[in-house]
Design goal:
Helix content is 19%, strand content 27%. The chain has one domain. A two-stranded antiparallel ribbon has the order 1-2. The protein is of the alpha+beta class and 52 residues long.
C-alpha cells in the first residue's frame, strides 16, 4: 500500500476498487457508494496529509 501511495503525486477524493470482473463495477452503483460487489476498496480524501 505504501508503494502504491508513493506513486500518486496528488489526489483529492480518490476511490480505487477491485473486482473479479470488470462487469461487476457498474457506474450507477459506484456513484452512490454501493461497493458491495468490490473485493477491495481504497478511499483517499487528500494526499497532502499522507505521511512518508
Amino acid at each position: 500500500m505504501r508503494e502504491f501511495a508513493a506513486e500518486i503525486g496528488q489526489c483529492f477524493d480518490l476511490l480505487v476498487v477491485a473486482a473479479t470482473e470488470r462487469e461487476a463495477l457498474l457506474p450507477e452503483k459506484l456513484v452512490v457508494d454501493d461497493l458491495g460487489d468490490c473485493l477491495v476498496t481504497l478511499a483517499a480524501i487528500d494526499s497532502g496529509s499522507w505521511g512518508s
